[in-house]
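Narrative of accomplishments. A recurring question from our advisory board has been how the design workflow behaves on a single, concrete structure rather than in aggregate. To address it, we present the structure tokens for one chain from the evaluation set, followed by the sequence designed for it. No filtering or post-editing was applied between the two.
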């Protein structure tokens, strides 16, 4: 191979993130480290600096492909497909199709692109000899996931009383009392009193099926009836059931909404798919990545590693899984609008008897669209308020307080995107006349009037 240098292991962004739901979950924890590298470190196309090494350590492309083909033939969960995939690789290697990829990182990338059309979890990487990737990744499991709160990156009660949990990684755990379980329990307790709940998986690439099963049991009466069965070459390989029984009250009737995107993969898809199939959650967003088959990494003697699926999940309700197809949302919307839409659905799911503040929030969310532009005639100074254009929208400024974005509600009324229960009305000098003041209605029913002042710049600098 030609000489070249690199800094560390190469891993395409399409790295696998899903892992087997075996009865013995120790192998899952070890396999989870692959997901930790990608999900927590937010890796670019080539990632993880581990030190400079010479590509001369890597084998010739034909040798590397032959080694990878042998691993697939020996380990992939479907023996028939494994033989076909391996034979195809060996034939193309013999024909010289890979000879030009003398840089092992390039070969790894090309093999990943090719193999991922067969199974979304296939991923090839390369690290020079002496690069102890396993030790490095294990360290990520212990410290980096803890710094990331074991995947629970945001928990909130949104305006209107909707619970919100953002989960960016399914951290692995084995038994009761783990910090991962504690993080999950803390998040769920924080939103325990909300009448509806949104779980945001738009940035979640996957992780441990243990966390999937732990969360599923919070929302279904009989988890065993909705748990996927994992099947491998040898038959039944396990069930996606939690190793720990939750002590939290179940939320069997809470309206539940799960946000997904094309980034949502593997175990994150498993949570969405399982609760959707059980009729327990409404999925909102874009179709997911379509990586269902869990597995683990296999190494060659010359520095290449390939993630190979060793089992496939079968949902007891659908009789299949989401491999290659992804999870289809019940409500298909652009992923960046999924939260707003889910908040509307959550509030509407409570029925018509919403409290006043929640009803005001719902009205604002429905009006909050790009096509609903604010009246530019509002720009100007009103008492100690200033309204000016910034970033293509009208903003409200009051002293040193944070900017607020106007949301027109029609009939000379508007709200604020950041304070959706806020209400302002425009006061005019007669019907259709010039704007003379803004009037803010207070939650208790009082009003504050802001008279229009001398015109100033209509653009915030």
């Amino acid at each position: 191979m030609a000489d070249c240098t690199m800094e560390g292991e190469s891993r395409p962004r399409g790295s696998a993130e899903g892992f087997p739901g075996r009865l013995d979950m120790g192998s899952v924890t070890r396999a989870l480290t692959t997901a930790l590298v990608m999900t927590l470190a937010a890796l670019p196309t080539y990632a993880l600096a581990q030190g400079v090494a010479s590509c001369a350590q890597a084998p010739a492309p034909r040798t590397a492909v032959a080694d990878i083909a042998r691993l697939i033939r020996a380990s992939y969960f479907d023996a028939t497909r494994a033989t076909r995939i391996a034979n195809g690789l060996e034939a193309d290697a013999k024909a010289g199709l890979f000879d030009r990829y003398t840089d092992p990182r390039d070969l790894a990338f090309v093999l990943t692109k090719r193999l991922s059309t067969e199974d979304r979890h296939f991923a090839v990487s390369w690290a020079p000899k002496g690069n102890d990737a396993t030790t490095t990744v294990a360290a990520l499991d212990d410290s980096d996931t803890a710094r990331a709160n074991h995947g629970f990156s945001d928990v909130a009660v949104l305006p209107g009383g909707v619970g919100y949990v953002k989960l960016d990684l399914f951290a692995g755990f084995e038994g009761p009392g783990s910090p991962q379980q504690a993080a999950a329990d803390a998040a769920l307790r924080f939103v325990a009193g909300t009448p509806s709940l949104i779980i945001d998986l738009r940035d979640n690439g996957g992780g441990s099926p243990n966390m999937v099963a732990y969360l599923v049991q919070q929302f279904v009466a009989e988890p065993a009836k909705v748990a996927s069965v994992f099947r491998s070459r040898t038959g039944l390989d396990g069930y996606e059931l939690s190793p720990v029984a939750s002590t939290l009250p179940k939320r069997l009737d809470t309206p539940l909404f799960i946000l997904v995107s094309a980034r949502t993969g593997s175990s994150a898809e498993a949570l969405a798919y399982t609760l959707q199939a059980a009729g327990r959650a409404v999925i909102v967003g874009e179709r997911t990545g379509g990586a269902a088959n869990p597995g683990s990494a296999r190494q060659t003697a010359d520095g290449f590693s390939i993630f190979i699926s060793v089992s496939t999940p079968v949902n007891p309700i659908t009789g299949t899984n989401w491999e290659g197809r992804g999870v289809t949302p019940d409500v298909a919307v652009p992923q960046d609008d999924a939260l707003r839409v889910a908040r509307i659905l959550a509030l509407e799911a409570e029925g018509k008897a919403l409290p006043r503040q929640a009803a005001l929030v719902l009205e604002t969310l429905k009006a909050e669209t790009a096509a609903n532009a604010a009246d530019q005639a509002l720009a100007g100074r009103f008492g100690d308020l200033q309204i000016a254009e910034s970033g293509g929208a009208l903003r409200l400024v009051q002293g040193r307080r944070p900017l607020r974005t106007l949301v027109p509600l029609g009939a000379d009324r508007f709200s604020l995107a950041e304070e959706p229960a806020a209400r302002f009305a425009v006061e005019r000098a007669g019907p259709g006349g010039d704007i003379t003041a803004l009037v803010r209605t207070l939650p208790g029913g009082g009003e504050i009037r802001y008279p229009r002042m001398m015109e100033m710049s209509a653009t915030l600098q």
